[in-house]
Design brief:
Length: about 750
Amino acid sequence: MKIAILGGGPSGLYFAISMKLRDPNHDLTIYERNRFDDTFGWGVVLSDETMSNFEDNDPISEKMIRDNFAYWDDVKTVRGDEAMTSGGHGFCGIGRKKLLLVLQERARDLGVTLQYETDLTDEKIAELKETNDLVVAADGLNSKTRTIYADQFQPEIDMRRNHFVWLGTHQKFDDAFTFIFEKTEHGWIWAHAYQFDDDTATFIVECGPDVFKAFGFDTLNQQDSIALCEKIFAKHLGGHALMTNANHIRGSAWIQFPRVTCENWFFENVVLLGDASATAHFSIGSGSKLGMESAIALADELNSGAPLRDALQTYQDERKLQVLRVTSAARNSTEWFEEVERYLTLDMMQFNYSLLTRSQRISHENLRLRDPEWLASAEAWFQKKAGSNSNRSPMFAPFTLREMELANRVVVSPMAQYKAAEGMPTDWHFVHYAERAKGGAGLVFTEMLCVSMEGRITPGCPCIGPDQVPAWSRLTDFVHAETPAKICAQIGHAGRKGSTRLAWDGIDQPLTEGNWGLLSASALPLMEGNVVPKAMDRADMDKVKDQFVAAVKAAAEADFDMIEMHAAHGYLLASFISPVTNKRSDEYGGCLENRMRFPLEIFHAMRAHWPEAKPMSVRISAHDWMGDEGVHPEEAVDIARMFKEAGADAINVSSGQTDKKEQPIYGRMFQVPFSDRVRNDVQSPTLVAGNIYEPDHVNSILMAGRADLVLLARPHLADPYWTLHAAVELGDTEQAWPAPYEGGRRQANTLAERAKAMAS
């Protein structure tokens, strides 16, 4: 194949090398606008895993790179006068210029033509497209090729809020990859520092937009900007200067990071590679890694024997998914640094843990593999903070709300069962909840218990009122007598989402017969064909408030340990909070204060009739997934703060289910960032659910301070004894089992030990 490669960075060079290794007859020319030794970065970070991939692809260039490495195993976090180090991270650095020279040498040896100082105009790119079998656009995050053919590639560029400047220093930072956080008169500013050769380190300075402007970095020239950074970080630089290699840039050389994604990575005979197709934030050090590994994948497909279009399609389909995993992690890391002031008040141990796990690529158990001694100290710190002298995992730390003491942080999430009969719980409910209380969770939630028959979601949903007290009391008596678990009644009203079929008969679909009248903030049906609700008037509000109060009194009589007001997921109270469902023009509509008026009124009424010693939480939807039209995470902070000020002991942070037009973005632990924001901005305990299914997830969330209690739904449907089994998996021998099941505990632990021994 005759191939033109646009851009002589690591991605373009490594692609050329990879193609020549697979077929020396390929005719490859690299076109680069700069001189061969120009480079505007400092160090490149590569992991041990990446180097293994390079060794498999080309042992010769891998050795050339490795021979020029600076290695480190530790990550050091410095915050003011505090410092903490953890090990086992296995990274290496190489100067970007050295990496380019190494790859240039290898490419030339293999017969690749390199043309430098070549200005790739629009006309030149069009010409190369016509005269080559393939054009590989490896022309960086500001890709001219991507811009020319934007209609085909459909790029999205998200300019991130923080500002940063890429500097170097002869203060080597050769003991660890070092993060330095300094509090100044204008706020926090920080540095990412790591060695990349015998006497030089990368030193990236970063700050938020307010601090950037307050220091005047937007108006300073490079030398004055560097001098100011030297002053800020003087005690860490050991008398060494900061250096720039961006003298060609006018101004201070501070930039913002563009997060690039593209719908398509190729069209006709043009394909994007590296930063041209997708960017990963520098805070996870994966830009060069992604580009060079993509180069391997593209070379593999082009030499598979498949037609060109098929090869490019396969490359896009497979590699795009892999890149997405890394860029998603990079987005998590980016957002952590954008909100870092939220975490800088945490205890140093928790702050360091949060920093290490910010991308969600490093988990709790992964940290144990990297540095078991440090993680053990972190777990001991967490337990001590919880009032325990244990060394158990965070999920097994106790937790107290008011006078309710939980044995651990695992919660059975509220899950509708649709098995009630005329509002009455049945034996199904008793067995379902009793089994999960026996299963080791610290707290068990009921499904939403409706305050009236008209407030049910479906005919199979249970109520709570005087008539239901005996049935619920039977359950709570069992839980209290036979298990250490506590039990919470979630109380709510379906609103416009009521009068629908059982889930397995058509979720959210209206009943085929026997529909009942509905209430909501506004007269908006859930979907076309569903019952149109009545927009509540004051009389309706008073009636519903009385129903909520009666439900609370029934929950107290039934001896529930805790109650939760359901103000999420588009149900009645949520319909007032969300502007998607609240179109009122009176004092209950419009601004957030008005939209919160009725839910807060209900909360106050419930709290007034609930025992003082027992806690009460509120479930909210932190994101309607409706763009600017609905509740968004920033507004959720204000919603949570209002409920906290009203007396809520905890906020159960959920999202979505407000409207059928929602466009949620699911993923592992996808609601945790919302809980993180609420917990740390509002300073309120939070509960969180959402695609959480492993003990590792639970421990990571708790240890990083992203929630205080973790709810698991589907895992508890699949395994009522999830918590007991999680303890076995973690090697925790302190977890109590019900006395009749002691033999099962011994066998489970024996089998786990045997499996571990066989694996080793």
